[in-house]
Amino acid sequence: MKYKLSIGIPICTVLVAAMVAAMSATAQVAAHTSSVPAGMAATPAMAPILQISDKPVARVNGAVLTDRDLLREMYAIFPYAKQHNGFPKAQEASIRQGALEMIIFEELVYQEARRRKLTVSAARMHQAEGEFQKQFHSAEDYDQYMQVEMHGSRQTLRQQIERSLLIEEVLKAEVDDKSAVSLAEVRAYYEKNPARFTQPESFSFQSISILPTAAKPTPEAINQNRKRAEEALKQAKATKSYQEFGLLAEKISEDDFRVNMGDHKGVGRDKLPPQIVKAALAMQPGQVSDLIQIENAFTIFRLNAHNLPRKQPFAEVKADLRIELGKSKYERLRSGLAKQLRAKAKIEIV
What we know:
CATH architecture of the largest domain: Orthogonal Bundle
CATH topology of the largest domain: Triger factor/SurA peptide-binding fold
CATH superfamily of the largest domain: Porin chaperone SurA, peptide-binding domain
Strand order of the largest sheet: 7-6-9-8
Largest sheet: 4 strands, antiparallel
Structural class: alpha+beta
CATH class of the largest domain: Mainly Alpha
Order of helices and strands: HHEEEHHEHHHHHEEHHEHEEEHE
Low-confidence stretches: 1-44
Oligomer: single chain
Strand content: 5-15%
């Protein structure tokens, strides 16, 4: 699992857009405002972008983290800020807090790498610097980044790349490598959680519905809807395939599923009205129901499948389950590492 490194981008999977967005705010904000989509500019729901002054926002064992570091991470969390000329007011505080926690964590990991006396070989540095530079769309973009973020200093850039690679090395050793999940672990989880992999009885079907236009329709309005539904039933009975029924549903149905060819996919038996279940149990896949009235609405459905209860076999779930368990293990290890490093650190929020 790749980790987003402290230079503002992963060294090995560089996202230039995120980095360009992280350039010094005073030079970039005006450019961002010109690209704001119609209707988004100057919206009161957006908090203005932080103005960079390189002032401290935190100290980690004496190492200073600045508002430049903070803004870079905020952009990584919410890259659309450059388009919207700000961060959503409702989320700005949480984005800022999340970014602050992240840059503190990165600094703690970097200091741990130094404590372990880890180093980066000259060959790896040369390779990483070349990979980094290749991600820019043009030499002009790279030069702009160098001037704004690195103050024109290649040495500063190399220091940042080295810092990122050292962070990556610690995380690989303490999180990535340890988060691998064996097939035996996946099978053990599968066997200990049988209920999770048991699929209940369900029905897959498409619907055409004629709905009332008022909360309490008059008897006359209900009769009018019934006539429309009976006409819809004639058309539905004439369809011969999933496609034909679906196209008719898109044309005449009034329920929300009409935009997806009336398809409800698999719905658990316990989640369906008893009228639908009773009709479905008497049908074969491909058949179209008669007209069904549920309160003041009229429904017609095409049964596509009656899925009996089944336990998903291990072979069917093992790949996705292994990924899921790996991600969960990764997060536990990462959280544990952060807690461990914080326990012996002096952290000051400025």
